[in-house]
Amino acid sequence: MRGKFSLRKSLLELWRRRDLIAIMTVSQIRARYKQSLLGFAWAVLQPLILMFLFTFIFSKMLHVTSEGLPYPLFSYSALIFFSFFSTCLTLGVPSLVIYAPIIRKIYFPREIFPLVTVLASVFDLIFAALVFLLLLIIYPQAGLTWTALWVLPLLIIQTLFTLGVVFFAAAVCAMLRDVQWGIPLITQVWLYCTPVIYSLDAVPPQYRWILLLNPLTGLVDGYRKALLHNAAPDMLYLGISLVFSVAAFYLGYRYFKAKEMTFADIL
Amino acid sequence: MSDDVAIRFDRVGKIYHKGLFVPPFRQMLGALVRGPRKLMQQFRAEHEFHALQDVSFEVRRGESLGIIGPNGAGKTTTLKILAGITDHTEGEVEAHGRVGALIEVGAGFHPELTGRENIIHYGAIMGMTRRELKARFDDIVAFAEIEPGFLDTPVKRYSTGMYVRLAFSVAVHVDPDVLLLDEVLSVGDYAFQAKSLQRVKQLVEQDNRAMILVSHNMGAVASFCHRALWLENGRIRAHGDTDDVVRQYLDAKDRAIPDEAEKSTVKGNYPLHVRSVTALDEHGRPAEECAHGKTLRFQLVIDADKALGKPILMLTVQSAATGLIFGANMFMTESKRLPIKQGRNILECAFADNPLTPGGYLVGCFGRAEDGLTLLSPPDIFARFTVPFDERAFGADGRFAAAKSREVGPVWLPHEWKIVED
Predict the structure, then answer these.
(1) Alpha-carbon distance B326 to A216, whole Å?
(2) Taking CB atoms and an 8 Å limit, are A176 and B126 in contact across chains?
(3) More confident residue, B359 or A178
(4) Subunit contact B103:A106, Cβ cutoff 8 A
(5) Do B12 and B57 contact (CB within 8 A), yes or no?
(6) Alpha carbon of B239: minimum distance to chain A alpha carbons (Å)
């Protein structure tokens, strides 16, 4: 019989538990790569293989335009961020189910489980980003300038959005395991609804607003502008993404906290 | 309500939904016809049950409460509500200060991580900050008696004893205001149990913490809970002075003979069943009172599923105030170990000169196989008796003038005082 949702109180509680969050994040990163052959290479492999695949299919075969840039660079710059999103979903959504034995025996804020998977995935993102720097050396058509710093605020917005989605889906997944099996399909569909393979500029203007309902659209477009075109993100697109992301975070978190006390009983 | 109250349950109830969380697909199709609201109502009613109902109690700081009762009585649910793991559905719950709950030893341990990593990891889960962990790390390792070499070994390679000692050690070093223990004091070897009890006792009595202990072990409850609560089917059967509640519980258990067979299957298949232990007076008649200084005799009725050779039977005498006092262990007198045949065995165990001071005592009994390790029956309390205060018999030398106020302890031994130097 908990009181009403208070964002401030919930965040304060998380701040008090920051040591736990840090410790769990580190041990999750370690556990993820312990006893695996390729180790951290896995973090890079997924976006890299997709990049080769997409380059061959969409650039070489279907001649999709890529904003005047080499297609590998064009697709990889979006793929690393989309991979971050899909990894968070894949690992974060079933996190409550995986940690059910602890949830039934010990209390601490339950959102820490999905939160930690998201934080640990940032680590993967950093590795994938290092490969991007290599690509920049291979393709001198683009180079980083100060506009690249736009990546940080964009990444924060993306993380907020991701957390909102993961909180919501993880809470639903605790009740209905079907969600877990739906995740691969959802991420696949989401990939095609985000301008990763194609450029937002290539989308006819009358359909563009549909894509912009997806907060990742404005973000991916922003990443490309900042990293490849040495420009600031489109402020309208970014504004839409920001509003939707904050709303998603708030609603997802609120839903999670409303369901939190039932997890121990239903898992 | 006093400021000293650490835990307060006020008419608390909890409704669980057992089984499925959502109606099966077929019923959901039916809902299209009859309306979803009606379906959900019907579904709920069919699948809900009261895990707790109308439970009220308080625990003050510096006080410990024992919760006893059969399996499924709502004991663990009570602790889980207090720990914040699950929610109650009726009434009010208050818990003041940091709550440290040890519902299961080792839950929260990561088998792949080393002992050192697990202390940090588990400690943080239990609510300690990095700074606190650093400060208490050495104490935790020392208390758990982990050899330095093992600290950097993954805990999956630990022996069960080591694993459990480490988990328990972290939990008691959290330094909670409210400590909740669920059936965890029976872990580890005997020496470690004694140490754990000591530590928990110190937390309650010296550091003024509140504690709730859930246990099937009447000895543990009797030895250090100030009050006891007997739960059954989610309701309070009795609540009050530990001695009273434990006695009522044991009496009810005695009367419910059919439960006996069920109990042994619940606790695992033990081949030895202690049916009863009865204190006898000096004339060999069943007695509730056993006089100090006279022969102290117990009759044991034991059923064995098969002939067990010469097993090691253990009879223990304990008290609510001080815990285990002494025991009669057949192992110590190997030549005198008695054969246990299939079917009913009636034995007697006698102490020549009852050294117990006036008060109430509990008698426990269990058996081990000839190897000295395998448990043949689970340790449990089977009888209680009192040593009466009898002025006629002991008044002359004033032995119990002090014993009455529990200052000489549970056992009185012959001794002599003299002046060595003026």
Answers:
(1) 72
(2) no
(3) A178
(4) yes
(5) no
(6) 25
Domain B267-403 has CATH 2.70.50.60: yes
Given this model, what pLDDT does residue A215 score?
94
| CA distance linking residue B80 with residue B65, whole number of Å | 15
Residues of B in contact with A175 (CB under 8 A): 21-22
- Name the 3-class secondary structure at B304: strand
Helices A7-16/A235-259 angle, 10° precision: 80
Tell me, yes or no, whether A2 lies in a domain.
Answer: no
* A177 contact residues in B (CB cutoff 8 A): none
Phi-psi region of A35 (alpha: psi -120 to 50; beta: other; left: phi over 0): left
| A148 in a structural domain | yes
Of A32, A119, A110, whose CA–CA distance to B125 is shortest? A110
pLDDT-derived band of residue A89, with 50, 70 and 90 as boundaries?
Answer: very high
Q: Which fold has domain B1-98+220-256?
A: Rossmann fold (3.40.50)
The pLDDT value recorded for residue B414 is 81
User: Which of A10, A23, A172 has the highest number of chain B CBs within 10 A, making it the mutation to test binding with B?
Assistant: A23
Q: Which of A13, A19, A267 to mutate to test the interface with B (most CBs of B within 10 A)?
A: A19
pLDDT in tens, B131-174: 999 999 999 999 998 888 899 998 888 888 888 889 888 888 88
> Is A1 inside any structural domain?
no
Residue with tokens 């049950």: B49
d(CA B24, CA A243): 38
DSSP string, B220-241: HHHHH-SEEEEEETTEEEEEEE
DSSP string, B128-157: --HHHHHHHHHHHHHHHT--GGGGGSBGGG
Looking at every residue in chain B, the average pLDDT score rounds to 81
Higher pLDDT: B320 or B12? It is B12
pLDDT at B265: 43
Q: Is residue A113 part of a domain?
A: yes
What residues in chain A have their Cβ under 8 A from chain B's Cβ atoms? 1-2, 17, 19-20, 22-24, 27, 31, 34-35, 101-108, 175-176, 261-262, 264-266
Closest residue, chain A, to B15 (C-alpha): A265
Residue A258 CB contacts under 8 Å (≥ 6 apart), including other chains: A5
Cβ-based contacts of A17 with chain B (< 8 Å) = 124
Distances A40 to A35, A36, A92, B257 between C-alpha atoms, Å: 11, 9, 19, 62
Give the Cβ contact number of residue B312 at 10 Å: 19
In contact, B86 and A264? CB cutoff 8 Å = yes
User: Which of B80, B86, B110 is closest, CB to CB, to A27?
Assistant: B110
Beta sheet of B48-60, edge-to-edge order: B48-60, B5-17, B90-95
Task: Give yes or no for residue A201 having a pLDDT over 70.
Answer: yes
Confidence of residue B262 (pLDDT cuts 50, 70, 90): very low
Range of the domain at A74: 7-266
The structure tokens listed for A223 are: 């990443």
pLDDT at B337: 81
Residue ranges per structural domain of chain B:
1-98+220-256, 267-403
Its pTM stands at 0.74
Q: What is the pLDDT of residues B193-212, one digit of tens each?
A: 778 878 888 888 888 999 99
Q: How many domains does chain A divide into? A: 1
Give the minimum alpha-carbon distance from B310 to chain A in angstroms, rounded to a whole number: 41
The pair of structure tokens assigned to B132 is 């606190």
What is the ipTM for the molecules in this complex?
0.81
